Amino acid sequence: MAFGLEVAEIFRQYGEAYRQAHAGHLGLTERRVMSAIELCRTAALGGHVEHCADCGLIRIAYNSCRNRHCPKCQGLARAEWLAERQAELLPVPYFHVVFTLPAAVAEIAFQNKAMVYAILFRAAAETLCTIAADRRHLGAEIGVVAVLHTWGQTLHHHPHVHCVVPGGGLSFDGRRWVACRPGFFLPVRVLSRLFRRLFLERLQAAFDAGNLGFFGDLAGLANQVAFEQRLGLLRRIEWVVYAKPPFGSPEQVLAYLGRYTHRVAIANSRLVSLEQGQISFRWRDYRHHDKPKMMTLAAGEFIRRFLLHALPDGFHRIRHYGFLANGHRRAKLARCRLLLAAPPPAPLPSADYRQRYRQLTGISLDTCPCCGGAMLPLGPLLCPDRQNTPSWFDSS
């Protein structure tokens, strides 16, 4: 089977040169991301061998790195997460709201990822929940699923949060479902103004507490006067909050979430060619009606842009708020279903890995790709060197 170009191949060919060229500036997180992607599904991570009982095909299945930045390791994680979300869907319209940081904040965020990304999440969620709770707009407690993205189509640093929100919420006494107006959720201009204020208040508090660091071109912002001047500038510009039309059905909500929740900076499917150290990839120009275009970058620049989006260790890029918050989600969703006369959720897939994979992805790991026969295990591959490879396996 022929495979297309992968991010892993770019890292394997040019990663070591990039490490050496940036030895003093490459962080531990970025190094781990590079190493994981390079080793993913190779003999270095071990694996197992299986054969077809009918045609005799021998197939090697190397282990995955399971790193969340790896383009090849998100399939099952995405499918499992979507199965859980499907059980939580309500029979109401869902809306998609995007909160974006201005460029002057994005550069501060890059040097303070964990702190500023967390502020972005909190400010976006509080904005939605506060405006929705206002009786002039909805007067209800809403639920929010928020997903952080830090990239644009050309891999530049562009932090923004995608929020998927049911079109309505629980009344404050918990006795009614309060539906939003048809086709309209909350006023975007009101959301934008409150989001800007809440974000800048939290950013100022982080600065006052000494929780922000600045270096390079931003070193001057460590000065209080310079920092407050930057905030003053940010208060005078419009912040982009974008509300898309409601989804047509719960199935469309899941399809959308499947595209966005476990996405990495660039999918392997967008890569076109690697020639003489130049990587070409497809991208869409949203400013010109999603016009498809091609971009070519030197390998080092491609790797640099990819690593811009490495998240801090332990940072959660999918978060839940309102009645979807983890602490009371089950009880409040049950109340919502009762008020909406909605049926109980379907049971989750089997706990067995292979059965769960087939149920969630529609792909069977037990079926021979050549004849459709049953694939049976032969044994593990514990390490990459031949001396520990089982005698029945011949790599030739």
Provide a descriptive summary of the structure in words.
This protein is α+β, with helices and mostly antiparallel strands and 396 residues long. The protein has a domain at 75-265 and 308-340: Replication Protein E1, Chain: A (3-Layer(aba) Sandwich). The protein contains eleven helices and 13 strands. The strands form four sheets. A five-stranded antiparallel beta sheet has the order 8-3-5-4-12, sandwiched between helices. A hairpin with a 5-residue loop joins strand 1 and strand 2 (58-62). Helix 1 (7-21) runs antiparallel to helix 2 (28-39). It is globular. It starts with 6 loop residues before the first helix and ends in a 15-residue tail after the last strand.
Quickly describe the structure:
The chain has 11 helices and 13 strands.
CATH topology value of the domain at 75-265 and 308-340 = Replication Protein E1, Chain: A
Arithmetic mean pLDDT: 89
Tally the beta strands. 13
Sum up the overall morphology in one term: globular
Q: What is the H-and-E element order?
A: HHEEHEHHEEEEHHEHEEEHEHHE
Radius of gyration: 24 Å
List the keywords.
396 residues, alpha+beta, Replication Protein E1, Chain: A, 11 helices, globular
Strands, helices and their partners?
Elements: H1 7-21, H2 28-39, E1 47-52, E2 58-62, H3 75-86, E3 94-100, H4 103-111, H5 113-133, E4 143-151, E5 157-166, E6 168-170, E7 177-179, H6 188-208, H7 224-235, E8 241-244, H8 250-260, E9 271-275, E10 278-285, E11 291-298, H9 299-307, E12 318-322, H10 329-340, H11 353-361, E13 375-381
Antiparallel strand pairs: 1-2, 1-13, 3-5, 3-8, 4-5, 4-12, 6-7, 9-10, 10-11
